[in-house]
Write a structure and sequence with these properties.
By secondary structure, the protein is α/β, with parallel strands linked by helices. It is 28% helix and 21% strand. The protein is built from 11 helices and 21 strands. It has an 8-stranded mixed sheet, with helices on one face. The longest helix has 20 residues, at 198-217. 50% of the residues are buried. Bound molecules: NADP nicotinamide-adenine-dinucleotide phosphate (NAP). Residues 472-483 have a biased composition (Low complexity). Residues 24-147 form the Gfo/Idh/MocA-like oxidoreductase N-terminal domain.
């Protein structure tokens, strides 16, 4: 039985456990380097198989289909991702393009009712992950960020050892993923327009395992999908390239429990790429946490004070294959315990903070940037909008009864995600004030209104003056025309 969107029904059992669907017909978007790993491991899946591939290059698409199609069932090759998403014969899509295309393509795939595994980082920022999670929740489809290492059995074993307090109370994590490379200026790792640099490429791995271990330290289990925690503080240093991406960066995290972590990443120097956890009774070392050998397996070193050291050997496994098969296991929940939506949201927020701490902002993130809609399509109010509207004397347009407060959107990316979604739901009224961010909120709202060409459609509640600023809102640089004035001390005045 095949599954589209919410139609998961009966169950069956394979060597990887109970599955809710017994066939997953995969489409792959962007058959580049990492897609080859996924495609190769699909060949040995008990539930999944390659059914289609989409590439901007027919030659690349055909070569991929020839190599990874199941015996006797050649995959369809599409010249555009849109055609792939429109194919009713595809159940799930694996998105393996460059970072900057992840949100747009995942949104389109979700809108088409496909289950989605999208390469890490799911989005270049937390705002994009927020849009995707909301879209997947509404569409009732599966969504996972491609942190494949979480699916390897060594991570479940590592978590068990920590949960059973093999090394006592967890105190510190040291984790790195950095490699020495010399990418050409237009390569995705070097080009700021493609969100290059280490933090977004591989920095998410050490951050994600530090958050996982900190979650275990707070008493939550990996198997339940709740083992993560968010740092209460983050300090960082980094080296930016002449092109403006992070060549190397290190961060110190502190969690509410008192657990600390050092994480490092880079694209121009080699680190040891291990994970060490220090506890009150000893330490655990994952020697090869991210890409354990597919032939030799991997080792976890356990050193408990006063006992002889031991090494636990983990047999080789197919982590990309397990990541794909997890769709069949978790299709009803829409997410896997190995990497939940909340976990991806938290990880993205930390990567935002890490980049901010080292002053890394991509050209498409500057305050004045044009930010496209998440799916790249023109913004419009959804057909199922239930928004109610009223009128205000003197304002010649309808006013949504729900008003969006512009007091916490700190970047143009976050502001765009919030304002676009509010508009899709039928909202057109925004409440702002200079005092909320010393003019930042108004500048971001104004930029968004200009980007979307919505000046005549929105209603903006400004403040003539506020207790501390006493600055007339009309002079604050927003391209939005204030439509009404508030009394001095109110924050919303409809
Ligand atoms: N989970 C992992 O182990 C792992 C490992 C490596 C990379 N990744 C992630 O996977 C993604 C792809 O990495 P990769 O090394 O496989 O990349 P890649 O081979 O350089 O490119 C992958 C695909 O992206 C599209 N693409 C390439 N350059 C582009 C550009 N300038 N503009 C728009 N699209 C472009 C191409 O799709 P078309 O064929 O359609 O042209 C290409 O086939 C990245 O987000 C990366 O973080 C994950």
């Amino acid at each position: 039985m095949n599954v589209h969107g919410k139609d998961a029904v009966n169950t069956s059992t394979t060597t990887t456990g109970t599955v809710l669907v017994d066939t997953l017909r995969w489409g792959i978007a962007g058959p580049g380097s990492i897609a080859r790993r996924f495609g190769g491991q699909l060949l040995t899946s008990e539930v999944g198989s390659l059914a289609a591939v989409a590439s901007r290059s027919r030659e690349r698409g055909e070569a991929f289909a020839n190599e990874f199609s199941p015996e006797g069932a050649p995959a369809v090759v599409y010249d555009s991702y849109d055609e792939l998403f429109a194919d009713p014969g595809i159940d799930a899509v694996y998105i393996a393009t460059v970072h900057t295309e992840h949100v747009r393509l995942a949104m389109l795939a979700i809108e088409a009712g496909k289950h989605v595994v999208c390469e890490k980082p799911l989005s270049i920022d937390h705002a994009g992950v927020m849009r995707l999670v909301e879209a997947a929740r509404e569409a009732g489809v599966y969504l996972a960020e491609g942190y494949m290492y979480r699916f390897h059995p060594q991570i479940a074993r590592f978590a068990e050892l920590l949960e059973s307090e093999t090394i006592g109370r967890i105190q510190h994590i040291d984790a790195s993923f950095a490699f020495a490379s010399d990418p050409a200026p237009d390569h995705r790792l070097a080009d700021p327009q493609l969100a290059g640099g280490g933090i977004l490429d591989v920095g998410g791995y050490p951050v994600s395992i530090a958050r996982l271990v900190a979650g275990i330290a707070e008493g939550r289990s990996f198997a339940s999908g709740t083992a993560f925690a968010e740092p209460v503080s983050l300090t960082a240093e980094g080296t930016l390239s002449a092109q403006g991406v992070d060549d190397w960066a290190a961060a110190s995290l502190v969690f509410a429990s008192g657990v600390t972590a050092n994480v490092r990443t880079g694209i121009r120097l080699q680190d040891d790429n291990t994970v060490t956890v220090i506890g009150s009774k000893g330490r655990l070392v994952l020697r090869d946490p991210w890409v354990p050998s597919e032939t030799d397996g991997s080792d976890i070193d356990v050193d408990v004070v006063g006992e002889p050291g031991r090494t636990i050997h983990i047999e080789p496994d197919r982590q990309w294959g397990l990541e794909g098969d997890a769709v069949a296991h978790n299709v009803r929940a829409g997410q896997s315990p190995q990497i939940t939506w909340a976990d991806s949201l938290g990880n993205a927020a930390v990567l935002d903070r890490w980049r901010e701490a080292i002053g890394l902002r991509y050209p498409f993130e500057v305050e004045t940037a044009f930010v496209p809609t998440a799916d790249g399509r023109p913004l419009k109010v959804r057909g199922d909008s239930i928004m109610k509207y009223g009128t205000i004397t003197g304002i010649d347009k309808r006013v949504s009864r729900l008003v969006l407060g512009c007091d916490n959107q700190l970047t143009i990316g976050h502001a765009t995600a919030m304002f676009d979604h509010f508009t899709e739901l039928g909202g057109n009224t925004f409440d702002t004030g200079y005092i909320y961010g010393n003019g930042l909120m108004e500048r971001l709202l104004g930029r968004w209104i200009a980007n979307r060409g919505l000046r005549d459609d929105v209603v903006v509640i400004g403040k003539e003056r506020t207790p501390r600023t006493a600055i007339p809102s009309r002079s604050r640089g927003s391209s939005a025309r204030p439509s009404t004035a508030c009394r001095p001390t109110t924050s919303t005045c409809i």
